[in-house]
Write a structure and sequence with these properties.
Layout: E1 4-9, H1 10-39, H2 58-90, H3 97-117, H4 133-155, H5 164-183, E2 186-190, E3 193-196, H6 200-217, H7 221-235, H8 242-256, H9 271-283, H10 285-297, H11 303-308, H12 310-332, H13 335-341, H14 345-375, H15 382-414, H16 428-434, H17 436-466, E4 472-477, H18 493-499, H19 501-525, H20 541-552, H21 567-573, H22 608-616, H23 618-621, H24 632-635, H25 643-652, H26 659-663, H27 665-680, H28 684-690, H29 699-709
Antiparallel strand pairs: 1-4, 2-3
Family: Belongs to the heme-copper respiratory oxidase family.
GO molecular function: cytochrome-c oxidase activity; heme binding; metal ion binding
Membrane topology: Multi-pass membrane protein
Amino acid sequence: MEKEQFYYDNKIVKMFLWATILWGVVGMLVGLLVALLFVFPGLLEFAGADNAISWLSFGRLRPLHTNAVIFAFVGNGIFLGVYYSTQRLLKARMFNDVLSRIHFWGWQAIIVAAAITLPLGLTSSKEYAELEWPIDIAVVLIWVVFGINLIGTILKRRQRHIYVAIWFYIATLVTIAVLYIFNNLEMPVSAFKSYSVYSGVQDALVQWWYGHNAVAFFLTTPILGLMYYFVPKVANRPVYSYRLSIIHFWTLIFLYIWAGPHHLLYTALPEWAQNLGTVFSVMLIFPSWGGMINGLLTLRGAWDKVRENPVLKFFVVAITGYGMATFEGPMLSFKNLNAIGHYTDWIVGHVHIGALAWNGFMIAGIVYWLAEKLWKTPLYSRKLANTHFWLGTLGILFYAIPLYVAGFTQAFMWKQFNPDGTLVYGNFLETVTQVIPMYAMRAIGGTLYLTGFILLAINVIKTAKAGSTVEDELAEAAPLKKISGQRVAGEGFHTWLERKTVLFTILTTVAILIGGLVEIVPLILVKSNIPTIESVKPYTPLELEGRDIYIREGCNNCHSQMIRPFRSEVERYGEYSKAGEYVYDFPFLWGSRRTGPDVHRVGGKYNDNWHFNHMMDPRSTSPGSIMPRYSWLLKNDMNASNLESKMKGLVTLGVPYTAEDISGAKQALLAQAKEIEGNLRQDPEFVKNYGSSNIQNKEIVALIAYLQRLGTDIKANTTALK
């Protein structure tokens, strides 16, 4: 059959390559700044302690770092690899050049929007899903553009059977669409403010169904697809086992979607949901290690190349990091290990093994290899690439190992009792100051890793300058001849399925939907899963404003609101948390780590002046604290202009505010604020420092009201369940 000539679109690949490098440097730099704030809390207080800059506080920079690394760096790295490999695997140019450009510039615009809004405190607070509703809509639209371009390319392909890498791209496309839409269903109440349509326990399950599977289907399945393409290409070896790749794919996508509840063990989530998460998480080790084995054994007969080729060095460490992270994840889903690890820095170390080794090194190897292919010239300096490899590897070790040590230190200190039954370390700060040397080592590791990546940027820039500027690459392939939909002689079932791409996509969608439906639908529809508590009432208008300020400042990045039923936690914090306490929490704020103590029972524990002083200067009430100052809360007036629309939106979501509550909201807010100001003025020091200043309309008052409400709806050992 006569072959057709066509051109691969290399320009779009180069665009994503430069974006990957740019956002990699930015995301890692912000991460290093965040790491340094643990060691030097006042590092970014350029304007002085009394004039701290709100958008440089830890609570706002931390989500900026995670979003920059996940969606900007890794996201662009994924699209880089997908756009390059898809064209060559399918023997076709991308479906539409205009869609390719819309996808690229739309994705960059979303990243810039995130980089602006997150430091401004415009956040939904849900981990890895902090972007507010207008940006969420943009993400979905651009994802649809990407989907049309990918599926269109598959349908016009000149290669009959779709290769394993394409399977993983399809799974990524459909699953991220499902996860992102359902987790980000929100009730907008203003241009950049919304409330999750789920509350409390339901919101927690949906969020970690998304959160865990954002790791699974954004940070894992597309990278596995890239592994299946680039590792054989660079090593010049076939994939070790086609049969193993089939088992790996289908078992992974079916099992992964169930595992989210293992982030919520020992919480107020119903026991049945926790147990489902544990069972499927443990099973995940088998397909995950199947993928690792398939990747590493692809290098059989080519290990001599690893010594010489820096790209293969990056791939080997990346796949090994994947194996380590996917062994650790199932182990952490065992309740006895989860009781030690959850809320500690062990989890942060675990996550960064995946991010730095698996994602970071895989993308670095791809960038180096593509630099030679795209600019048709040898890499500027292999020595520089090898230096990057060793700096990055040392950086990973210096980052992760101290955090493992910190995690175990925290867990054992939190749980240690004296013979008389009191906590050995009753002051939470004792556990914070103990691990600061580990935080310093983590910052050193981050510096090494960032330095290595900057070397990559220099190396690629030099390579591009020395190479060709040709944007399109001539290729040829025979057009695809139509054959019967029936299986032909000698064709296995899966081989047949690989040419039935619509059916393949449908089966993939069914596989990922089963787990989500089984876990989430009963929790939302069966009321007995979340017993209500009669004494739990909606937040007052001032408390609602304070909660939104708490969310804006990212306080839940460091403070949990979930006391687990452990002797040590009940002794330290108070009565363990009940599912019914969170029914009016839109969104939930259980947190995922404790840099500071849990605050679910903080209401009434300290007086208003303590909270005021703690926010203005944490070291004044808590010597050794690494919490930032929030001096702007005393300067900023409360903006209650959207108060009524917020309450009306919450009524739509099921919060029982009456018409009288809403019409009298501003008066109620002022009355409670005036009462708090009166409490503050009982302290002579407050009067001395702030004189006759009117602070009842300041944001600090609203935040104090919210903190004083936390955990006060029930008494210890409440029986007020109905």
